[in-house]
Amino acid sequence: MKKETTILLVDDNPENLGVLAKLLAKSDRLLTIAQDGAAALETMKDKRPDLILLDIMMPGMNGFETCKRLKQDATLADIPIIFLTALQEKEDVIAGLKLGAVDYVTKPFNEKELLTRVNTHLELQAVKEELRESIATRDKLFSIISHDLGGMFAGMQSLAQLLTDKKTPPDAETREKWLKMLMQSATNGYELLTNLLNWSRAQTGKLQTYPTKIILQYLIVRNIELQRDKAKGKEIEIVVSVDEKLSVFADVNMFNTVLRNLISNAIKFTEALGTIRVFAELIENNLVEISVSDTGIGIKPEDIDKLFKINIDSTYGTAGEKGNGLGLVLCKDLIEQCGGTIGVESVIGEGSRFYVCLPIVSPKL
Q1: pLDDT tens-digit readout, 195-217
Q2: C-alpha angle with apex 121: 13 to 202, nearest 5 degrees?
Q3: pLDDT, tens digit, 9 for 90 and up, residues 101-158
Q4: Whole-angstrom Cα distance, residue 309 to residue 133?
Q5: Domain annotation for the chain: domains and CATH numbers
Q6: What whole-number distance in Å separates Cα of residue 310 and Cα of residue 142?
């Protein structure tokens, strides 16, 4: 879904605001209005705009001071600002640009000039955002390869050396313990590599989708059984409630990857002796909602928006399990390719519920 673009108009003159709103209404952008600098700053606490059209001459906090304060706020500093001015003096224009504005438009407004400048800076901002995401993606990829995969192989190599050491061979109990650790490391490494390959294919558009009818109960139970040992290690109970006849229409490999990641994520962030519930039900518009809920540690409200985005930092599980921050990003990409949606509800200390909605029949393209 295309992101809705918001433009904040700041001018103390209602007539100017009316003219701007009328001209920009043709650009199909969402408009927000403020009649002074203080009101503009207050507005941005609730809604961060993509572009600001800012009048210079205003009572109280003028445009220059408003721009200065915006640039001092790290969360707002990169929003492009176009000054609106009736001033013709070159010094005023230069002063505005030195404060961090990207452009200016003089009054009375010329429709073609205004729309051209607005569209240009919105497009430039979109390119900058894509570049930031590309850099974050590259850094994340390198981090996974160098730290996560590298660390797994190093650990497996150390365990293999201990198991094959003829000078000080382990006793039967220790050998069994190390073999289980080696198997778990190999499983984790394989799952991470699979996620990494699928994610990279999704990013380059090379991941093919082959949707088909999927019986939910079988696939869900199969994924739970594959991770039963992880749950047993923390004495976590997994409860399943899925009608044996309930089905969805999706790519089986993609959906299988999503289930594996959601169940693994729930185990990771659930305390010992906790409970995980996997539930599916038919909802409106021929959709099935599959949810994976847990009694885990929950997610901070400010972190929820970051869950499905690439980021360098990852969170450790309740037993110190190391994550790589890729699983949920991949889930979002794969579910959307299947024509579905994914979301989350969470309360700190009370657990989380991830839910996926998929069609029960082939969606009309």
Answers
A1: 777 777 776 777 788 899 999 99
A2: 135
A3: 999 998 888 889 999 999 999 999 989 888 887 777 677 667 666 666 776 788 888 8
A4: 9
A5: 6-109 (3.40.50.2300), 136-207 (1.10.287.130), 208-365 (3.30.565.10)
A6: 12
